[in-house]
Amino acid sequence: MESWFLLILLGLLFAVDGVGSSNVTYDGRSLIINGHHKILFSGSIHYPRSTPQMWPSLIAKAKAGGLDVIETLVFWNLHEPQPGQFDFSGERDIVRFIKEIQAQGLYACIRVGPFIQGEWSYGGLPFWLHDIPGIVYRSDNEPFKVKYFSFLIAMEMFSSGVSRTVPATDTPLRFGIMAVSNGEIENEYGMVEAAFREKGPPYLRWAAEMAVGLQTGVPWINACNGRRCGETFPGPNSPNKPAIWTENWTSFYQVYGDEPDIRSAEDIAFHVALFIAKKGSYVNYYMYHGGTNFGRTAAAYILTSYYDQAPLDEYGLFRLPKWGHLKELHAAIKLCINPLLSGVHTTLDLGRSQVAFVYRRESVDGAAFLVNNDTTKTVVVTFQDSLYELPPKSISILPDCKTEAFNTGKVSTQYNTRAAETWQKLDSIEKWEEHKETIPTFEDNSLRANMLLEHMNTTKDNSDYLWYCSRFQNELSDAAFVLNVTSSAHVLHAFVNGEFVGSTHGSFKTKTSTLESKITLSKGTNYISLLSGMVGLPDSGAYLERRVAGINTVRVQGEHEIKDFTSYSWGYQVGLLGEILQVYTDSGSSKVKWNTYGSSNHQRLTWYRTMFDAPAGKEPVALNLESMGKGEAWINGRSIGRYWASFLTPKGVPSQTRYNVPRSFLKHTGNLLVILEEESGYPPGISVDTISIRKVCGHVSDSHLPPVISWQQQNETGHNNSKKQPGRRPKVHLRCPPGRSISRILFASYGTPTGDCENYAIGNCHSFTSLPTIEEVT
C-alpha cells in the first residue's frame, strides 16, 4: 500500500570519527550535518538478522554500493526478554554494530522503537508487557511509557559502559540522535493513531518530548514509506523541512504460501531518481540486506528468510544487477550534488508524458533529470537543442545539463546467478536417530481451567506450542464420532487416545481454521490432546495487547448427541517436552532416549538428530529442508529458524527450501543437527549445501551508457563538451566474486543476440569471432 505518514523519527546518527554525536539540523532542502547540507543514501541492515562475523563485510559492501548511512531497528524484546534482565551480547551487541559502521566511515541511523513492526515477532515489544495491569501499548498510557523509558535508560547505560549484564566494548559510545522521519520512535504510527482517539496525539508528543529531553534535537518531519514515493509523496508538511523517504522497499516481506516479490533494479532506480529530482534528500532502502529470522523471531507466518531479493541477499552475496545498478545511480546523483543542494529548481515539459527537472547555480553549473513517464514507449526528447533517447518509464541524469551519465532503464552492470551445490547428503539412515515427543493427557498437566484458555497469554511467548488436554467418558465401545475444532491459532494437531486424528492450519490472510475428523472412541475414559501452534506472534495494528489466538471451540458429535467441550475441564502444557528438556543441545540431548531412525511406527511430533562436518572453504552454508514438513532446526544448540516446506505456493513449491547456517554456528567437525518435525518429513532427504555465485553475464548495446566512473574521469580532464567522448563507450565488465575465477565462457555474441542471462541465443547478426576473442583474453 502506498501511503505517507506524519510521524516522528528518532534515529541515532554517529560521527564518522567516533568522538561523539554529530550536530544534525535541517532546512527545506536537506538534512544538515555539522553545518553541511547532505543528500544521503541509506540502507537497512538489522544487526540480529545477521551475525557479528558478517557485519564488517555487509557494511563494506553497502559502502561500496554508494551508501552513506546504515539504518537498523532496535529490538526491545531481544534486549529485555524478561523485566529488568538485559542482554547486549553476541548478535545483540548493537554498540559493536554501530562502531563497525563508524569504523568504515558511515553514519548510523538507529530506529529505537518502542514499536518497530519490521515483521519481527510482536513488533519488537516484550510479551511480558501484556501482564502489566492497565497497560495499553502505543498510547498515552503511563505503565507503557514508564517501561519503555526504563529500557532506553538501560540502553544508554550500556552504550556508555556504566552498567550492563554483558562485557563492555572498548570505549563508551553515547547515543546521539538524527531526526528525519517516519516512525523511528513509533513505526508507522499514522496508520493506528486514530484508533487510540484522544490517547494518540499526547503519546506522539511525549515521544518527541522524550527525544528532546535526551538532548537529541529531534525534529518532526513527515516522510514516505513505499515503492513510489517520487510519485505519491505530497511533500513535507512545511517548506522548512526536507523530503525524506524512510522505507523504499527493495522487494517485500514474504509469508508462507506466497511466491517471492521481485522488484526490478530499473524500477527502484526510477523512483529514487524521481524522488531526488523532486527535491528529495534522504532515501533509505528497506532492506539493503534482509538476512535471517533466526529462532522464533519472525512475526506471524513470516518466512525465516527475510528480504532475500535485496541488493545484498540473505547470505550477504551481491544480488546483481540490483546492487550494481543502484551503485551507478548513486554515483550519478552525487555528480549533481552541488546544483541539487544550492541550485534553482525549474520544471520543463518535454512532451505529453515527459518532463525535465533542472537545477542551476547562477549559470555556473547545472544538472538535469529527464523523465519519461510513458510505461510502453521509448521516446526521443529535445533538451537544450540536443536529442536524448529515453526508454519506457525511465530517467536520464545529466550532471552538466548536457552529458547523460546514467539512465534508470538501461542496465549496463553485470548480472549474476546464485546457485546451491550439495556438499553432503545426510541420507545415511544409520546415522539418524529419533525421539518421539510425548503426547500428554489431562492427568499430566498441573495447569487446569474449566475453559479454553487464550494461547498467547498462556505461553507468554516461551514457546510456539500449547497443549489443550481433556478427558471424558463414553458408554459405547468402538463408537464412531466426529471431532470438530475451531482455532484461531496458526496450526492445530489433534490426537485422541494418543493417536493422531488430523490437523489444520490458517494462513496470513485466513485467521481461523476448522478441523473436522472422524474418530473412534473406546468404552470408558477417552483422552483428547490438541496441540495449538503459532508461527510467530502478530506484529502490527492497534491494541496488540488485545489480540487472541488458540482453540475456540471443541465438539464431539455422535449419532444421537453433540458434546460441547468448550466449558469442560482442560489441562494445559506450555511447550513440548523436548523443548523443556532442550534436547537440541548437547547436554539436553542426553536426557532422553534416542532410537534408531525408523525403528518404530512413525508419529507426528518427532525429534531427529544426526552429525555432520562443515563444508570446506568460506562459501555460505545452507540446510536443504525440502524433504521435511513443518518444524524447527537447531545446529549445535542454535536455532536457524522455523521451516514449513509443506506449505506450498500457488505454483506448487515451498516458499523456502534452504535455510541459512552462518559459518559462526559451525565447528569444523561433529556438528549436531536436531530437527523437530511436526508432520511426516523425511530427514534422510536433507542435505548440507554451499551457496555461491556460479554465473555472471552482461549485455550492452550502442544505446547503453558508459560506466559512471568514466564520466567522472572525462569530466575531471575537461573533456565534457559532447555526449560521446573518446574513451566513453558502453562496456561489458564481468567480474567473479572474490576467490573465484572464470572457468569457461558459456556464450558470447557481438551482433544482435536475443534473450537474457538465463535464456540466450545468437541473433540475425553475429560475429563468429565473438567467443574465440573473449576466450583469448580470459
Unreliable spans are: 1-20, 162-183, 717-724
> Would you report the number of β strands?
39
Oligomer: single chain
Please state roughly what percent of the residues sit in beta strands, choosing from under 5%, 5-15%, 15-25%, 25-35%, 35-45% or over 45%.
25-35%
Rounded radius of gyration (Å): 29 Å
Strand order of the largest sheet: 1-8-9-10-5-6-7
What profile does the largest beta sheet have? Answer: 7 strands, mixed
Number of helices: 14
Helix amount:
10-25%
Instruction: Please tell me what the overall shape is.
Output: globular
Structural class, judged by helices and strands? Answer: alpha+beta
The average pLDDT is: 89
Note the gap between the termini: 47 Å
Topology of this structure?
Layout: E1 3-5, E2 24-26, E3 31-33, E4 36-38, E5 40-45, H1 55-64, E6 69-73, H2 76-79, H3 94-103, E7 107-111, H4 142-160, H5 200-213, E8 223-226, H6 229-232, E9 243-249, H7 265-277, E10 280-289, H8 322-335, H9 337-342, E11 344-349, E12 354-361, E13 365-372, E14 379-383, E15 386-390, E16 394-398, E17 406-407, E18 415-425, E19 433-436, E20 447-449, H10 455-459, E21 465-474, E22 479-487, E23 491-496, E24 499-505, E25 513-521, E26 524-533, E27 551-557, E28 562-564, E29 570-574, H11 577-580, H12 586-589, E30 595-596, E31 606-612, E32 621-624, E33 630-635, E34 638-644, E35 658-661, E36 671-677, E37 687-697, H13 708-717, E38 754-755, E39 760-761, H14 770-777
Parallel strand pairs: 5-6, 5-10, 6-7, 8-9, 9-10
Antiparallel strand pairs: 1-8, 2-3, 3-4, 11-12, 12-13, 13-16, 14-15, 16-17, 18-37, 19-30, 19-31, 20-29, 21-26, 21-29, 22-25, 22-27, 23-24, 23-26, 27-28, 31-36, 32-35, 32-37, 33-34, 33-36, 38-39
Helix pairs in contact: 7-8
